[in-house]
Fold this protein.
Amino acid sequence: MLFKPLFTKMGVDTQQLRVILEVKLLMDDRRPYNQMRRAHKQKKDTKNTSLLAMFFLALMGCFMIFLLTMGNPLLGHTLYLSMFMIMMALTLVSDFTSVLIDVRDNFIILPRPVNDSTFTTSRILHITVHVFKMLISIGLPGLIYVVITDGPLGGIAFFVEIIATTLFSIFVVNMIYLLVLKVSSPEKFKNFISYFQIFVSIFVFAGYQVLPRISTRMDLHGINLLAYKLAYVYPPVWFASFYDTISHPETFAVAKLVMGVIGIIVPFVTIFIVVRYLAPGFNRKLSAIAGSGSEPEPQLVTTTGAAAVKEPATFVSNLSKFLCKDPVEQAGFKLTWWLTSRYRDFKVKVYPSFAYVPVYFVYYVFLGKGSGRNDPRSPEITEGQGYLLLTYLTSFVILTVLSQISQSEKYKAAWVMFSTPHNRPGKIVSGMFKAVMLKYFVPFYLVVSIFGLFLWGPVIINDLVLSFFNILVYGVILAIINVTYLPFSQPAVTEGGKTFARFLVMFVIFILGMAHYALSRWEWAINTGAVFSILLFWVLFHYFSKRDWKAMEADYG
Amino acid sequence: MTVPIIQIRNLGKSYGTKQVLKNINLDVSPGQIIGYIGPNGAGKSTTVKILIGLIADFEGEILISGKPLRENVIDIKRTIGYVPENAEIYEVLTPMEYLDFVGKLQGMDESLIRQRATKMLENFGLRPNMDQRMDTFSKGMRQKVMLISGIIHNPQIIVLDEPLSGLDANAVIMVKEIISRLAKEGKTIFYCSHMMDVVEKVSDRIVLINNGEIIAHGTFEELKQNSGQSLESIFARLTGKEDIGDSAGAFLDAFE
């Protein structure tokens, strides 16, 4: 222990500190890693999670080298550092609560004879180790690149600039936390964190897809950042100026020197503000998240007599009555509708995929081969069949929703669907199917359709109808083959087995899409196809809702 | 009567304007088992949290072995063992790793921890699971590990919050026996529970609180003289729910 004398002076029990840190880091290593949840085998104990996480961050870091090469060094580094800062801030926000603020500490560590400074120091060191791991893994590829191209001096300057960026990111994250805690309750805060995780996934995904494309297509060499006034107040520019001034003295400018100096001073000032002024209140607020504040008083709704007997006519229950005749089906519908909005783990897994559709679309249509496609209204696009790609991409929404719908952390609660004497599990799943289609697919498809109509005009209306039902047909087939469990009745596990069936189903949407594409030059064929598709959907759905227990792998427990 | 090991004087606690504890006074002698009961939300767990030093901000005074709790929290925590109600545990650790962690925070020597933990786990029948991660454990198995973690440092005062939850009948008998033997050795036990029949049998003295106040206090015999037959009926009478029979009837009326 390097700082032992210092810690002892602060009243920290170094022995306890070491034990706490060891255990915390060990636990970090065993926590299943978000991005890897699909790949990791169920029964095998997870190990080395942090190494894995570092590996993924390093991959991202490799991608980011692209940014460094863009335009002149000042611009390249500004872009790189912006990305770095965003990555850092996003990861920190989502990790802070889960990794660093552990509610169980209140019951496990605090009743033990551990003094406050030991406990606080252990948290600070834990955060430091965490941040340092991220810093190393994201920054290392860039560092190697810079050392190779600009030599050791550049390497040192680069190192300083990423440290400055990291400190600044911590400041930003702190500000975000304080702001959110100020305007919302601790309970909402947890929701906020899960939305943040959704945002992170989307961001990382879009980054992987779009960045390399943009960098090869745009000519950035001519851009001089210093010509833009706004650039002077953008922190990454300061940090990049520092680097530029040191490793490329031939392009010296006073403005850069000044900004470089600011860039070195500001992070230390902000981190001082964090430690001195923000951290104390911050800790108190965070312990409120964990503590008694998280037990909201149940709202007392006093409905008595006749009012209590009648079911309140809510939007969802009306909808379920409108769409489902069978009471069991209505129950499945409402259960799915409510739980999908209330289970955080479902939202975190499913919502990011909604963003994949626009990202892929932009990727294929606008950034496709050839140039001159930057204008979305160019004839090349409006006369093509790009809308088909767009509409069929929405099937992705169905794929993710249906593959997650039977899983839940609280899967044991599903016993109630097994113990009740209804004999039509098909009714529950058909209610579920209607609910997810109406809740996720239909609105999504509507937005996409409006966008499509805006670009391509009303001629595509019949195409929209056909592809809508084609996708629904695909959805039912997917549900018949893959959704063999009741909603929310299975623990989150790997999707093993049935790989072949899964592949075949993927093929279905491909065939449907291709058929549509082949027919698309005859309007009458599209119209006939649409009618046929509606019929097919109706028949398949009917079959789907008739399933009995045998068709379900309905083992409970 | 010997010198009390726990002395609670005019203890009060409020969250905002809501007063959770009002003027609690209690003396506990070494070797006693105190059954601490009360309806949900009566202030039981708040008392416990204050007693074990988790909540520092309270009114009144608490003396443990004659030393004021506020000024000696760390020293006093060394002599207290706590088994919380909701089995919060680092389930990605193995029992051995967890107990090693807890023991070291208590300032114990590694070999002593190992020796004690092995023995205790063995007697709870967890020897084969000693090096398995606890995320696959049943509730009873976790509860056993929690119990061991609460007493591994051989504390003078043991605070138990529903210690029997999830345990099977054999383990229940064993834990009850452990509790009474610990008391015979002079350990003080603070036993919180909703299971009246257990409290009735285990406790030397029973403290009943309601709305943050002690409303009854004495041995089971004493309480019986004043109030009723079983602890259950005493509890019902004192917490103002004598008409439970009527409520049950009204409940069943829903079928009509």
Remarks:
- Residues 1-79+157-165+186-256 of chain B form a domain with the Rossmann fold fold (CATH 3.40.50.300).
